[in-house]
Design a protein that fits this description.
single chain, 459 residues, alpha/beta, GMP Synthetase, Chain A, domain 3, Rossmann fold, five-stranded parallel beta sheet, three-stranded mixed beta sheet, 22 helices, 56% helix, binds adenosine-5'-diphosphate, binds magnesium ion
């Protein structure tokens, strides 16, 4: 690299190697939120979304980062981490990184005979919290893990990001291994499957590839949607699949959606995947999230000692971080780190401060239609009156309140909001918004109503 500037591409290489060094969870919690802001003359500036993250990274990871940058061949003498006040968009980056990062430990590829290669030791059945949304997937995984007769073949698990697919697959592999250490269980991501196949093609070792994949007792391929559209990989996958099924070997797959919904996946593969048991992991509910948090608290105690989590903090997290268990865990890891750093109880306030970036990115997106519905319900008027022409106060006022909430809780423009209020002009919307702004300082009942509605809508 001739220039003295580090590129984003180089930074992403560095991030990848950091992941290997500090582990997935720490990576997600501390490194993923960092942004490269500048790198010149040997000084690399990174920005963090909150003070807390900046301090923690400075204290614990600055050396690691420095070493990894140097190892990537970039000129560096110092790493500086500061708080990023300008760009709240870090959240999106975090989200994207989370989506992009397969949670698979780098597999020791030279070591395929090792049944536990690439498995995360924490992803066991013991550590998996069962609730209504994942009960069926869990039961199916358990059944396969008993390793008795092959009943469902393949087992196909699907569901959104961070709902526990990888965790369940590793758990199956661990359990099979524990019951029968002789069993050859091969777990890998679809990406690794493709990578190995392509490498085999290049190195003219396709026979070895075939022999390896056809000699396993159990084959597990994670994130199968990845092979969609990759023709020669699909072809090879299809043949591997058939060969193993013919020998009555167990197959387990996961994907982010049902087989039939994966675009650019060959029909013959879709139908093979559907021929076994297809189960989905549903989005988590509040109880499951709380259960997971409580379990993680118990697990974290082992490494962080006696940390006091204040009343309501876990409930708050379970309530607010609703999409992705990985983000929920990251939030908790950060709280534990904070607690051990400041040596005092984690109160709700402290939690909100520390997790500002995560909470911001998890905010539910409210729609204008939802606002209209809730406001109409609250004031006991018809939903149709929200967009209709009636002018009497009992209807016009709630309508204005809905306009105000639409302006403050969504990112829609005034003309856009106007369209959703029965094609009203943007000046009408602006008038309504101003009116409510005025009233809220004088009319305490109205101010209370607004607060209540806001809470209802954002929960
Ligand atoms: P996916 O593969 O579906 O994207 P993962 O299996 O990687 O999701 O899960 C993301 C994180 O959430 C992991 O750290 C995992 O341990 C945790 N997790 C998900 N569901 C549960 C659960 N039911 N109990 C305990 N931990 C869970
Ligand atoms: Mg996964």
């Amino acid at each position: 690299m001739g220039s003295n500037r580090m590129t984003d591409a180089a930074w992403s290489t560095v991030r990848n190697s950091l992941k290997g060094v500090i582990g997935d969870n720490n990576y997600v919690t501390w490194i993923a939120p960092l942004k490269l802001s500048s790198a010149q003359d040997g000084v690399v500036h990174l920005s963090a979304p909150t003070n807390f993250v900046a301090n923690w990274v400075n204290r614990h990871y600055a050396d690691h980062i420095l070493r990894c940058i140097a190892a990537a061949g970039e000129p560096v003498s110092r790493v500086e981490i500061s708080v990023d006040t300008a760009t709240p968009r870090t959240d999106d980056r975090l989200q994207r990184t989370l989506k992009a990062a397969p949670l698979v430990a780098p597999s020791r590829s030279s070591d395929d005979a090792d049944p536990v290669a690439g498995l995360d030791s924490r992803y066991t059945f013991d550590n998996f919290v069962v609730g209504k949304p994942n009960a069926l997937a869990h039961a199916a995984a358990r059944r396969v893990a008993e390793g008795s007769a092959v009943t469902f073949n393949p087992l196909f698990l699907y569901g959104g990001v961070g709902l526990g697919k990888t965790h369940l697959m590793h758990a199956i592999a661990w359990e099979l291994h524990a019951r029968n250490p002789e069993l050859r269980v091969l777990y890998l991501s679809a990406e690794q499957f493709m990578y190995r196949f392509v490498t085999a093609l290049r190195e003219r070792s396709v026979m070895d590839f075939k022999n390896l994949f056809r000699s396993v007792d159990v084959l597990m391929v994670d994130d199968l949607q990845f092979i969609a559209g990759k023709d020669s990989t699909q072809e090879e996958f299809f043949h591997t699949f058939n060969a193993l099924v013919d020998q009555n070997r167990q197959l387990v797959f996961s994907a982010d959606r049902a087989p039939g919904e994966i675009k650019d996946l060959e029909d013959r593969i879709k139908s093979r995947l559907q021929s076994g048991l297809v189960v989905d992991l549903h989005p988590t509910d509040y109880e499951l999230r709380l259960g997971i948090l409580q379990q993680k608290v118990a697990l974290n105690r082992a490494s962080y000692g006696d940390v006091v989590i204040g009343d309501g903090v876990l409930e708050f997290l379970a309530h607010r971080i609703t999409t992705n268990v990985r983000i929920l865990e990251g939030a908790l890891t950060r709280l534990f780190a904070l607690a051990s750093l400041v040596g005092r109880e984690i109160t709700l306030d402290l939690a909100q401060d520390t997790l500002a970036d995560i909470l911001r990115s998890s905010e539910r997106k409210v729609t204008v239609e939802e606002i209209q519905r809730k406001v109409a319900e609250h004031y006991n008027i018809r939903l149709s009156d929200m967009i209709g022409p009636k002018r009497q106060r009992t209807i016009a006022r709630p309508r204005q309140i809905a306009m105000y909430l639409a302006k403050s809780l969504t990112t829609r423009s005034l003309p856009d909001i106007g369209r959703r209020f029965g094609g009203r002009d943007h000046t009408t919307i602006m008038h309504g918004v101003r009116k409510v702004e005025e009233l809220r300082s004088t009319d305490s009942q109205l101010a209370e109503d607004l607060e209540l509605l806001r809470r209802l809508l954002q929960s």
